[in-house]
Amino acid sequence: VKHMLAASAGEVVACLIRVPSEVVKQRAQVSASSRTFQIFSNILCEEGIQGLYRGYKSTVLREALWSWRQDHVVDSWQSAVCGAFAGGFAAAVTTPLDVAKTRIMLAKAGSSNASGNVLSALHGVWRSQGLTGLFAGVFPRMAAISLGGFIFLGAYDRTRSFLLEVGKKSP
Predict the structure, then answer these.
(1) Cβ 55 vs Cβ 116: under 8 Å
(2) Where is it chiefly localized (predicted)?
(3) At what angle do helices 76-106 and 118-134 cross, to 10 degrees?
(4) Are 116 and 57 in contact, with CB atoms under 8 Å apart?
(5) Structural domain range at position 16
(6) What DSSP character marks residue 170?
(7) Each residue of 97-107: b (16+ CB within 10 Å) or e?
(8) Is residue 3 within 8 Å of 11, Cβ to Cβ?
(9) What CATH number does residue 96 fall under?
(10) Mean pLDDT lowest among 43-52, 107-116, 159-168
């Protein structure tokens, strides 16, 4: 429980930086003619600081679900496989939250989604597109996050094991 709370607290803080950069990045992707600094400035001028934090709550909720960790010692390759499965499952389960986050971040100022209400965004997608809309992009998301989980958890566990072995050999 301590580790989950610490990881969740870390994600809350990390999202303070990650969410504004994600908002600017997504708007740059749909508006290729604008420069990044111009997009950033427009958000601040038109919506204030809250415009940069659209989707913060849904992003934190999504990230907190990813912070579950396996609690027993396994080989590095097993950690990698567990990371891939855990990442894929988390990606599938949190896809509706990612859809809501994207809708909120890309919403036009003054629209209902621009308020940042996650449940309202989810309800709007459900009404207009149903279950298919809530899980739009689920397979590419699962593939990318599974691959990331495989690489990152496997590399983390291998590095940790290596450092523990080196530590045992040091006088």
Answers:
(1) yes
(2) membrane
(3) 120
(4) yes
(5) 2-169
(6) -
(7) bbbbbbbbbbb
(8) no
(9) 1.50.40.10
(10) 159-168
Tokens representing 49?
């600081």
Find where tokens 């992707």 sit: 29
The Cα–Cα gap between 68 and 77 comes to 19
In one-letter notation, the amino acid at residue 85 is F
- Number of domains forming the structure of the chain: 1
Please give the Cα distance from 119 to 85 (Å, whole number): 27
From the DSSP assignment, how many helices (H) and strands (E) are in the chain? 7, 0
Using pLDDT thresholds of 50, 70 and 90, give the confidence band for residue 134: very high
Distance of alpha carbon 74 from alpha carbon 10, whole angstroms:
25
Q: Can you give the pTM of this predicted structure?
A: 0.55
Judge contact between 55 and 105, C-beta under 8 A: yes
Which tokens is 45 given?
């001028």
Q: What count of residues does the chain have?
A: 171
pLDDT above 50 for 25: yes
